[in-house]
Design a protein that fits this description.
The chain is built from seven helices and no strands. The protein is mainly alpha-helical. The protein has one domain. Helix 3 packs antiparallel against helix 4.
Length: 181
């Protein structure tokens, strides 16, 4: 007797345990906050690059309108445009946790240290994020496989931070309205 497969039968699949190896979730849990901070820095790099591109464009246009003495202005505009594009590309790399983005982001953060006092503080924090033990781990090949094995794990922002963000936004709105009035 022949046992031909029944085309109307319920499909049968072998389901292997694709769960992560023991301890992988613990490693991801330990580094999740650091990973989220690095991704946030990537977003800030992208935002800064977009804003710098407008500045670069206005500098280039103002240099092109002026006389030949404005060659320094054009060079400055081109340099700003290069930094703006670099910042957007590196920011994307940080958001995706690409290992190649770590070195250029350190270079951009060192340049950002010149923006005293806020830029110095923010970029010192960025340098710490990237150079720390957890920062090195987040950009490693091993961690990329851990992220791939644990896609269900997400960072949950504490309620206190949401409240703090709301207070800051409210303060900015109040100061803006006060400046207009």
């Amino acid at each position: 007797m022949s046992t031909a497969p029944n085309p109307y039968a319920t499909p049968k699949a072998v389901v292997a345990d694709l769960g992560a190896a023991p301890g992988v979730e613990a490693v991801r849990e330990e580094h999740l906050g650091h990973e989220t901070n690095i991704k946030a820095v990537g977003g800030l790099f992208m935002l800064a690059g977009m804003l710098a591109s407008f500045t670069a464009l206005s500098v280039i246009v103002s240099g092109a309108v002026g006389a030949m003495e404005s060659m320094a202005v054009l060079v400055t505009g081109v340099l700003l445009a290069f930094l703006a594009v670099s910042s957007v590309v590196v920011g994307w790399g940080l958001r995706m946790l690409r290992a190649w983005a770590r070195t250029p982001s350190v270079i951009l953060a060192v340049i950002g240290l010149l923006g005293f006092p806020i830029g110095t503080l923010l970029n010192a924090y960025v340098l710490w994020l990237l150079a720390s033990r957890k920062g090195r781990m987040v950009f490693s090949v091993e961690y990329a496989s851990i992220v791939e094995a644990t896609p269900h794990m997400k960072y949950r922002t504490p309620l206190v931070l949401w409240i703090l963000l709301g207070v800051i936004v409210l303060l900015v709105v109040v100061l803006f309205v006060a400046a207009l009035g």
